[in-house]
Amino acid sequence: MPLMDIFGRLSSFIVSLAERYREIERKERLKRFGLNGNRITGSVVLRHPENISIGPNTYMNSGQLFAGKNARITIGDWCAIGYNVHIKAESHDIKRPTGPGRVEGDGAKERDIIIGDNVWVGDNVFIREGITIGSGSIIGANSAVVKDVPVGSIVGGNPARPLK
Q1: Are the CB atoms for 96 and 102 separated by under 8 Å?
Q2: 92 and 54 part of one domain
Q3: What is the spatial distance between Cα 125 and Cα 107, in angstroms, rounded to a whole number?
Q4: pLDDT at residue 55 in the model
Q5: Could you tell me where the beta strands, DSSP code E, fall in 9-157?
Q6: CA neighbor of 124 nearest in space, from 73, 83, 79, 75
Q7: What is the CATH number of the domain that holds 101?
Q8: Average model confidence (pLDDT) across the chain
Q9: Is the same domain home to 63 and 17?
Q10: 143 shares its domain with 78
Q11: 3, 24, 26, 112: which one has the fewest Cβ atoms less than 10 Å from its Cβ?
Q12: What is the pLDDT of residue 102?
């Protein structure tokens, strides 16, 4: 066997071991915060995971879940959350934007986000602080949710508005 083949196979083996290790570490990190590994299937950034609650049979593919120190994100049962979804219970206050000397939580707006049961959130959606999405609702892809969504609604767009 040529030396290049040996190095190629060894390199592939090392890469696969590293990927397996990262996946095991990700699942362990999620378990530490009570978020079962089968609920988050892709790369999701968690901020203040102790303030995040995800119901059974819900999955999220990728994106960000940013709870605040004093704000929770609650996601119900049987929700389907697409790729690149950003759910942020904490945001900058326009009266005190980022800058030198700013520390985490200083000048931040924090408000709970509640997503009911059986909610479908499409890809590339942004959900801002203080939003409640009623059970059985659908959020269309590429939407920015800046107002509460009533139970059983279909919304979409930027800003999200009722479609049906």
Answers
A1: yes
A2: yes
A3: 25
A4: 87
A5: 44-47, 52-54, 59-60, 63-66, 73-75, 80-81, 85-88, 90-92, 108-110, 113-115, 120-121, 126-127, 132-133, 138-139, 144-145, 154-156
A6: 83
A7: 2.160.10.10
A8: 84
A9: no
A10: yes
A11: 3
A12: 56
Residue 98 backbone dihedrals phi, psi, to 5 degrees: -65, 155
DSSP-based three-state secondary structure for 14: helix
Give the count of beta carbons closer than 10 Å to the beta carbon of residue 71.
21
Structural domain boundaries enclosing 27: 1-32
Per-residue pLDDT tens over the stretch 25-39: 766 666 655 565 446
d(CA 71, CA 110) in angstroms, rounded, equals: 6
86 noted as active-site residue: no
Q: Which distant-in-sequence residues (6+ apart) come within 8 Å of 142 by Cβ? A: 122, 123, 124, 125, 156, 158
What does the alpha-carbon distance between residue 86 and residue 142 come to, in Å, rounded to a whole number? Answer: 11
Q: How many CB atoms lie within 10 A of CB 12?
A: 10
For residue 161, the surrounding DSSP H or E stretch is strand 161-162
